[in-house]
Every structure is written in C-alpha cells, then in structure tokens.
Amino acid sequence: MASGVKVSDEVILIFNDMKVRKIQANEEEKKKRKKAIMFRMSNDCRNIIVDEAEEILQGQVGSTIPDPYMHFVKMLPTNDCRYALYDATYENKETKKEDLVFIFWAPDSASLRSKMLYASSKDAIKSKFQGIKHEWQVNNLEDLKDRRTLAEKLGGSSVVSIEGFSI
Predict the structure, then answer these.
(1) How many CB atoms lie within 10 A of CB 39?
(2) How far apart are CA 148 and CA 134, in angstroms?
(3) DSSP per position, 32-78
(4) How many other CB atoms are there within 10 angstroms of residue 84's CB atom?
(5) S-S: 56 plus which of 1, 8, 35, 93, CB 3.0-4.6 Å?
C-alpha cells in the first residue's frame, strides 16, 4: 500500500455481497443487490469509503433505470477520480454471463493530486477484491460510452450484447 490508505470494512462487505450471488435469494433480496457502486477517498484522504449516493440496485434495472450501464457512466464525476464495481450482464455467442468489473476512473480533468492519490491507493482496494476477473482503468468518458470497449474487457469479439443492448 504505497499511499498508506486503508479500505473501510463497509467497502469489503459490499464487495463480498456483490461477489456471492445467493441462488436461494427471494425476489425482494435480489432487488436490493447492488448492480453498481462507487468508492471514494474520505475527506481526510486516509480511507477508501463507499460513495453513499452513487449506486444502482438490481431492483431499479428495467423499471426506473432502463439502461444500467449508461446510467452508471453518467454517475461518474467529471472532475474527480473514483473506484467502482460494476456487475456486468453480457452475452457471448454461447451463453449469458455476469461478471464483476473493477473500474478505476481517473478522468483527464481531475487534479494531479487526486490522480496520484487514487493511483497510489489502487493496490490497497484491489488487494481486498479477491477474485475480480476484469479490471479497467478509464481516463475519458468516450471510452466508457462505447460498449465495445467494455466488451473487449469482458471477452473481446465473442461478446454480442451488454445489459441486453447489442454491441
């Protein structure tokens, strides 16, 4: 942990909850599962914490949020860095899949201090997220808005749709 930043227990609990899909979960529990969540530095820059207002619940998908991926993209701050977990639902030529994607958002417009702090603290949060298959560092919105870029991270040319939208 080059920066000495610690990861809050709540961040770890949320990751573990997103990672373990409860097969016997009832519909109400499934609706409360997180589809996407963001993490930020605490005000004193000593801890990585949950960005409370920035989440998408599975129960919102299809009802209040028709396209969860584009909604997620719009949640990202334009002038500051964030870490995020996105539970991507996608289809390849054989089957439908769900995978967690760890995203390090460091927009070009963020301050140098913020970019350096988040970059030097990335290993602290990644070390707590055991089992993440996909990691994505993004520096501009254009890369995020194009679903093909996410498709490349998830499986390349074999991915035919993300969140029900064709590539």
Answers:
(1) 22
(2) 15
(3) HSEEEEEEEE-TTSSEEEEEEEEEEEGGGBTTTBS-HHHHHHHHS-S
(4) 22
(5) 35
Report the run of H or E that residue 83 belongs to, with start and end.
strand 82-92
Mean pLDDT by 10 residues, the chain (167 residues): 84 92 70 93 96 89 92 95 96 91 96 96 95 92 88 91 92
Buried b vs exposed e over 146-161: b needs ≥16 C-beta within 10 Å?
Answer: ebeebbebbbeeebee
Angle at 82 between CA 67 and CA 66, to 5 degrees: 5
Say whether pTM exceeds 0.85.
yes
